[in-house]
Amino acid sequence: MIHILGIRHHGPGSAKNVMEFLEKVKPDIVLVEGPPEADPLLQWVNHAELKPPVAILVYQPEDPQQSSFYPFAEFSPEWQAIAYARKNNIHVRFMDLPIGHHIALEKEAIERVKKEEEERKAREGEQPGAAAPSVNNYSIKNNEVVEVLPIRKDPISWLAEAAGYDDGEKWWEHMFEHRHGNEQVFDAVTEAMQVLREEFAQKETHTERLREAWMRKTIRQAEKEMFQTIAVICGAWHAPALVNMPKAKDDSDLLKGLPKVKVECTWIPWTFSRLSYYSGYGAGIESPGWYDHIWRYPKDDGSRWMAKVAQLFRKKEMDTSVAHVIEAVRLAEALASMRNLYKAGLEELNEATKTVLCNGEDILMKLIHDELIVSNRIGEVPAEIPKPPLQLDIERIQKRLRLPATADWKDYTLDLRKENDLERSIFLHRLQLLEIKWGNRQDVSGKGTFKEMWRLQWDPELSINIIEKGSWGNTVAEAAEKFVIQKAKEADALSKVSTLLQETIPAELHKAVEVCIQCINNLAAASGDVIQLMEVVPGLVQASRYGSVRKTDADLVLGIVNSMLTRICVSLPTACTSVSDDAAQKLLDLFFKLNDAVNVLQQADITSLWQQTLQSIAAAGNASPMIAGYATRLLADYKLLEGDELVRVFHYSMSAGTPPDKAASWLEGFLKGSGTILLIDNDLWNLVNNWVDTLGEETFTRVLPLLRRTFASFSSPERKKLGEKVKNGGGSSGIKSSVEITIDEERAKQGIPVILQLLGIKN
Amino acid sequence: MSSLLRQHAEQLYAQELEELQKQDTGKRPTNWKLTPQSVVTYLIGGKLKNGFEVSPKYIGNKRLMEIAVATLTTDRALLLYGLPGTAKSWVSEHLSAAVSGDSTMIVQGTAGTSEEAIRYGWNYARLLAEGPSQGALVETPVMRAMKDGKIARIEELTRIGADVQDTLITILSEKTLPVPELNTEVQAVKGFNVIATANNRDKGVNELSSALKRRFNTVILPVPDSMNEEIDIVKRRVESFEKVMELPAEPPALEEIRRIVTIFRELRSGVTLDGKTKIKVPSGTLSTAEAISVVNNGLAMAAYFGDGQLKAADLAAGIIGSVIKDPVQDKLVWQEYLETVVKPRDEWKDIYRACRDLM
Fold first, then answer.
1. pLDDT per position as a tens digit, A385-429
2. Residue whose C-alpha is closest to residue A450's, from A539, A546, A542
3. How many angstroms away from the CA of A355 is the closest CA of chain B?
4. Residues A174 and A322 grouped into a single domain
5. Distance from the B218 Cα atom to the nearest Cα atom in chain A, whole angstroms
6. What domain count does chain A have?
7. Same domain (yes/no): A331, A231
8. Domain containing residue B181
9. How many Å apart are CA A238 and CA A138, to the nearest integer?
10. Is the ipTM above a cut-off of 0.90?
11. Residue-wise pLDDT tens digits, B106-120
12. Which of B220, B250, B270 is a domain's end point?
C-alpha cells in the first residue's frame, strides 16, 4: 500500500497531519523528498545535540560553491517524518533526483546556453522552474539569485482566488494547516494539485520531469524490496505525479545516461531568518517564529503568544501589564470570530497587539517581527558528525574562546592586553584573511591601539566558505597562512601586498608576514613608480605601530619601511617635475600623508633624509609649483627655513615675474590645510600679512583671484576668524575661542542607528 | 426631502440599516442593532444577499474598521486617532448609528468641558426647591447611554482638561457612575461603550493619563493611501452634499476633483506627484475633508454666482482659503507652489490665472 502525503514545506499543520497519519497507518518505510546522497546523514536525526533549524548541505568537493541546502525546522513535515522513522526504527530514504545529477545537468545547461549564445546572441536560456515554490521544492542553491517578480503568482494563488482569498499562503493555511481532522486532507491536496497541474501543464520543465521520475523509481524500488506500507512525503505539487504511475520503462528511459558529479554532504546549523522568504529563499515562509510557536503550542488561543509579546516589551523597558495581555487576547478573539475563523491567527494577534499595546502605532511592530515572528534562532549540530577538519577546528576555537555563533549580531570589545581577548582578535583576523566573513571590524572610540571592536553574526552560508577554504589547511592558522602566502605571491601591485601585510600582522602569521615583506621588497625594487611606494608607506608605518601591543614582526616592517623611504627620497625630486595640476594635487595628498608617517616613525636618519629631499624640491626651479610651495611650508614647519630667508623665498615665488597661475598654485601648496595654523602661528601670519602690505594697488588686484582661490579652500569658520583677525589689526587675539569645530566623529556615529530607526530605515 | 439642515447618520441611512437588519442572521451582542459583521458591511459598503447595495461610508482599509468594531464588542473603549479631517468623527457617528441605532449621545470636548458635562449636572432651581433628588439631576449623554446600553461619543477627547478626562476611568473600568448626593449609582447596561476621537496635530492638547489610555484601544485613521482613493472619497461626499443642499449646479467633472486632490496631496507630502520637485509644506493639514469643502464651496459659488458649471475661478478662493492658514509663511509657500508647479502645467492655466487674480 502506497500513501502519498502531499505537504507544504515548512508547514506546521502539514507536519501535524503527517505525524498523525504515520501513527495511524504505521508504515514500514518512509520516503522523503530530498537528496539520496544524504541518506547516511539521516541516522543523526533524533540525536540529542542536533537541534533544528538545521540544513543538509550538499556540495561538490572540488567546487564547494556548487552546493545546495535542504533546511529543516522542527515544524517541517519532512523533519517530523524522518524523526518518526528513526524513533520507530523503520527505513527512511530520500527520493529526489540526486544532487550529483542536478549539478552536472546544470553545468551542461550552462555550457549549452553559452554555446547557443555564441551561435545566436539573442536566445533565451532555460526557463526557471515551475512556479509553486512552497509545495514544489524546498532546497535552496548557494548564491541563487531569486528573481522577485512584482506579482508572484504561484498556481496555489489561483485556487485561493477562486475561494475568495487574496493570498495563496493564507488560503493554504486555513484550508490545510489549521485543520483538525486529517482524514481526507492528503487526498484533497492531491486532487487539488491534479487540477492545477492540468491547467499549468506547460510549466513543467525537463528537470521537474526527471525529479518526479526519480521519485517514482525510488518508490518502485521500495516495492520491489517487499515493503508493505510505504509512506511518501513530498511537496504537494508532486503528489499527483506519484499517484498516477506511468510505465516503469518510461521513467528508466528518461533517467538513462544522466551526467553525474561526486558530491558530499553534511549537517550545518541554519537560522530562522534564513528560513523566511525575506532572505530570498524560494520555499521560504513568512513567519518561522510564529510557526514554531503554533507547532509547540497547537492549543494556544493567543494568550501564550501575547505573553511572549508582553515579555519582549518589558525586556525593552516598555510598561506592559497583564491587563494589556488579557485585553489584546480578547480583541484578537473578537476579530477572529468576526472573520469567521475558529481561532485567532497571527494577523489577528498582530492587529490586537498594535491596537492595545502600541497605541495604534506601527513602530513597535517591527520589533515583534524581528524578535518573535521571524526570531533569530540558530540550530546546533553535534560535534561528532563527520565534518571538514577546518570546520572542526573553527568550532573548537569558538568553544575555547567562548565566541558562540549566533543568528543575531553581537558586539565584542576586545582589550588586546588581555590574553583571551588577544587570542580572539587573532582568530577573527585569521578568519577575515580566509574571507570567512563572520566578524566585522567596527571603529572603536577612544585612543590607543589596544582596543578592537567586532560585530559577529553567523550566516549559514559561511559553512560553504569554510569547506572551500578547507583545501588550504586543516587548521585556521595553517589555512590562513598558506592562503595569504599564495595571495601575496600572486599579487602584482605593491598596494595589494601592503594591504595584505597590514591585515596579516594582527593575525600573527609570522611566516606569511615574512613572505609578504619579501614580496614587497621585490616589488618595490622592481617598481620605478615612486607614487606607488608613497601610497604604501603610510599604511605600513601604521602597521608597525602595532608593535606596542602585539609581540609582532614590527621590526621586520620597520626595516622595509626604512628601505622604501630611502628609495622614495632618492627619486622624489625628479618625480615632482613637470607634472600636471591633477597629478600634483594627488601627489600633494601623498606628501601630506608621507610627512605624517615620517613624523610618526621618529627616526632621526629618516627624518633628516626627508628634510634634505624637501629642500631640494623647494629649491629646484622646475618642480611643480604647488608641491614646491608645500615643501617650503614643511621646511618652515621644521624650522629649517626661517626669518628673512623664508620671507625672501616667499616674495620670490610670488613676485610679478612668476606667471599668475604658477604663483597661485605655489600659494595653495604653501597654505595647504593651514587656515587654523595661519591664525595661531603669528610668524606665518605676519609673513603673509606683510607680503600683502607691500603689494601696490595694481599688483594686489592682480593677485586677488589667486588669494581667493587659496582661501576658498579653508572652512567658513576659519575664514571668518581670519577676517576678524585682520580687523583686529592682526593681533594674537584670534585664537582665544576655539576656532575649529571639532566634531567627535565616534560620538556622532553612536547616534546614527537611533536616527536611522527614527527615520524607519533598518540598519 | 426633510427640511433638516443635516440629518443624523441613522436618519440618512435608515433604509440601509433596515435592510442590513433584515438580512442579519448571526448572533448580535446584547442591545446591538446589528451583528458585528453587518456593522463592518455598513461602514465599508457591499452588496447584500437580496441585491441591495450598501453604500460605503469609510473608504480605506477594511481591517481598521474590523478592529474598531471588534473593540466595541470587548469591554475596552475605542479611541479614533489621526490628523484633522481623516474621518474620525464621521466613522464614530456611523459606528454608533449602526451599533445602537443612535448617534446623538455626544459630548463635545473643549478646554472648558467640565465634569458636569460628562457625569451629570443639576437643575439648580429644582435643587434649591426640592433638595437633591432624581428630578433635579440633569443627565448627560454619557449617563443616558449607560442607562440605555448605547454608544456614547466623546469628540476631541484630548482637548478636555486632564482632571475632567479622568472622570471617565470609573465609567470605563467599573462601568458605573456613582451619584453620591443621592446615594445611588447608574450601572451601565450591556451594549454601552464609548467612542472617543482625538487628533494628533493640535498643539497644547492634554495627553491622556496612562490609566485612561489603558481603557482605550487606539485605531489610527491614516490619510488616504492613493490618489484614486482620495478622489473617490471627495466625489462621494460632494455628491451627497449636492443632494442635501439641493444645489442647482451640475455635478463637478472628475477632472476638477482630480486637480483639487492633486494640489492637496502635493502640498501635504511636500513633493509633486511625479516625485521630481520638492515643495514647501504649508502649516495647515490639508485633509481630505478640506478638499471636500473646497469642492462644495466651489459648487455653491458656481450655482449662485456663476453659470452653474464648476470652473477654476469658483474653486480658487476655497483653495487659497484652506492652504493659507498663516498669512505670512503659507502665502509664500502657496506663491512658490503656484509659480513653480501650477504655472508650467499646460492644462492648469485656468487655475493659475484664477489664483493669481485673487492674490
1. 777 778 888 888 888 888 888 877 888 888 877 888 888 888 888
2. A546
3. 5
4. no
5. 5
6. 3
7. no
8. 9-220
9. 12
10. no
11. 999 998 899 999 999
12. B220
